[in-house]
Amino acid sequence: MPIATRLRTQRPTRADCPVRWRHDIPWSQDLPDHMAHAVVAPVRFDVLPAPDTTADRIQGYDAQHAPCYRAYRYVRTELRSDDDESYYVAPVYAETLEAWRLTDQRWLVLHTRVDDYDAGRARHHLSVQAGMPR
């Protein structure tokens, strides 16, 4: 039996989430080190690209199927040219939001904005919220 058939028979799948069972999502990469012990680790993910945009959403779930991680990424691009003959797409703005559910059920939220790609400046804002960000 081909591996794809075995995986389909072993786990439920959803057509809108081709990487639902991936385990290599870097969910803790931007998590502050001093908070790593206080978050609930996801065991399953839904990765949902936004159609016709450069955006996506990731939802992570714990072993009880409750949301424990959420990420949004959006990049705005524009056409640019260095010589008025060749054009290329370049990012001009990016925004990300990552949120981790804490063991006390609050959410640690990291909001990052890059307003000026040419200068490489990013603004980060870390906060704690009572509920999961929408």
Automatic annotation (TrEMBL):
Source organism superkingdom: Bacteria
Name under which the protein is recorded: Uncharacterized protein
Organism: Hydrogenophaga electricum
